[in-house]
Design a protein that fits this description.
The protein is α+β, with helices and mostly antiparallel strands. It contains five helices and five strands; from the N terminus they run βββαβαβααα.
Length: about 160
């Protein structure tokens, strides 16, 4: 995603979502998001949640880089690209980005990148912990994950 500060300076935000429970597990904010920053965010996500089998991305320059391709290869993570011009192939992230755009970026004026980072973290904490999702049985992403883990422990 991208937006502008009050001064007109553009910035970008990378959202890393767990498609299972729609939890936003990591984000990165910066004036630019080269592949090195993407890799750092992915590594933080792995440190927090564990290594995924695959990562679905669009065809942005930060995702088609050889650095990201090599990092995924080294970590045995399949890099799945959506087809150009087909955002519906990444519909959960697109829906999240739409909600974030309407409820967050369109609702506030930001003066600094640090302000964006702080307020993004607060918004994401609310999204993950407090907001019910119809598709998750009116549970928040964290509640859904907790319920799933509890059910898996009882079924063993």
């Amino acid at each position: 995603m991208s937006d502008t500060l009050y001064s007109g300076k553009r910035y970008r935000i990378l959202n890393i979502m767990d498609e299972f429970n729609r939890e936003l597990i990591e984000f990165e904010v910066g004036v630019s998001l080269p592949s090195v920053k993407v890799i750092q965010a992915l590594q933080r996500a792995i440190d927090f949640r564990g290594k995924p089998q695959s990562i679905r991305v669009d065809n942005g320059p930060e995702f088609i880089s050889h650095k990201l391709e090599m990092w995924c290869y080294i970590h045995s993570i399949e890099l799945k690209f959506i087809q150009p011009g087909c955002p519906t192939q990444n519909s959960r992230v697109e829906r999240f980005n739409g909600s974030m755009r309407r409820e967050f970026f369109d609702a506030y004026l930001f003066y600094t990148l640090n302000e964006v980072k702080i307020m993004t973290k607060e918004w994401i904490d609310d999204y993950n912990n407090d907001r019910p999702h119809v598709v998750l049985g009116k549970l928040s992403p964290i509640e859904y994950l907790d319920k799933y883990n509890l059910e898996m422990n009882y079924s063993v």
